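Weekly structure sync, notes
Attendees: PL (lead), two postdocs, one rotation student
Agenda item 3: pending single-chain targets
PL asked that the sequence for the first pending target be pasted directly into the notes so everyone works from the same version. It is reproduced below exactly as submitted, 519 residues in total.
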Amino acid sequence: MKNEDKIKQLIDLRVKAKQGGGEKRIEAQHAKGKLTARERIDLLLDEGSFEELDMFVTHRCTNFGMEKEKYLGDGVVTGQGTINGRLVYVYSHDFTVFGGSLSETFAMKICKIMDLAMKMGAPVIGINDSGGARIQEGVGSLAGYAEIFQRNILASGVIPQISVIFGPCAGGSVYSPALTDFIMMSEENSYMFITGPKVVKAVTGEDISVEALGGANMHASRSGVAHFVAENEESGLATIRDLLSYLPQNNLEDAPITECDDPIERKEDSLNSLLPENPNQPYDMMQVISSITDYGDFFEVHADYAKSIIVGFARFDGVSTGIVANQPSQMAGILDIESSRKAARFVRFCDAFNIPVLTLVDVPGFLPGSGQEQGGIIVHGAKLLFAYGEATIPKVTVTLRKSYGGAHDVMSCKQLRGDFNYAWPTAEIAVMGASGAIEVLEGKAISKIENPEEKAKFIQEKTKEYQEAFANPYQAASMGYIDDVIEPRNTRFRVIRAFRSIQTKKEVNPSRKHNNIPL
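Predicted structure, written out during the meeting:
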């Protein structure tokens, strides 16, 4: 064969590989409103930056006549590229080839780029659209999954790992996304579950739809499995690009610092009058966040899950920062099982990747009730406490209003190694609210008063006495547990100056193999 023929053969093979399972299957993919594996990569990465690896890999299976049907690439597109000029590694399932099912060689391709990502210290993004394990390969495909899982585990906390679900993800294949840092799902075509509706029906008798069992909205609002839900694939991939702009390449680097001309000394007068006079009335914590961050920008994570707490990324003077904030407009900002888990996971991610955390506190306590106790609120609340206590990143806390009981401790208090703990003059830092405290402290005296008017007057007087003593930040400040009481409108300036002063902070936990967080 002549040289020019060999070159033509290469070109033809590349064209064939890029066709995946062929035009008819590509058309079927588009008919479902889904993009192909390579179209997704092109949208995700900077234009022209993708370098594909293992384009010519094919499966090795000879069972069930599989040796007669082979496709170049074997159902997954893998390689490297850039997002905003920064190196990333990516794999994208090709549903047009055997339904994107995983084979031994399919897994080998994914493992290769995961190994490269670890060597180079760069994020990995996996775009999932797969029918699961390739049944014809038996245990070989299961071993392939386990090889991927092992790499997910070793990469955890070392490089950012992001999973994008743009189709089916069922059975054992769900565990790789579950081991990664963030999961994105699309509204119409994605679902995740261990066992599908047919198996559920056969085993339990429950009749349930695919969407109700494992759809994007269910996982985003109820299970908490999905961190983001996209209206379509294009917007989902744009969100991933945005997310990566807040993250470092790996655990040994800091997140990129952007230029910022939003003045750090900008005062937000509206904050001085934001809180209602009645401490039991709600307000929107998002107003506080948008008032103090650079340009009012906030990239929320887990927006539809456990809404009584807010987590996400923002920038202060161009520095990427995690924010954890109680949301008084949702269940009074109370902590429960779901919100504790949500915040703990986020704090631990930030700590792993050197992202400072700002905590905005307005929490009346933990949600009471048998359901919470039986569900293990003690252990789940301890996760958040543990996350803050082990974190060695810069931590700034601002208490806006309520900070009661154990919830005060859990929300990044001074004793959990908070670097700067500020409070607004409206802060109420106490064991419990005034009405509850008076019931405990003066219960016997109240029960002895028979006259309703006298009883009401007594309760009112004692409540006022308690409020004057504890419904303020000054007792905590007098003991050094609050570093300063600040004017609300100055919050942005004080937060940025605090973070600037602790950016070179060094704090080391005791030497150990690993901790034993209460899972």
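Discussion points:
- The mean pLDDT is 93.
- The longest strand covers residues 395-404.
Action: rotation student to compare against the earlier draft before next sync.
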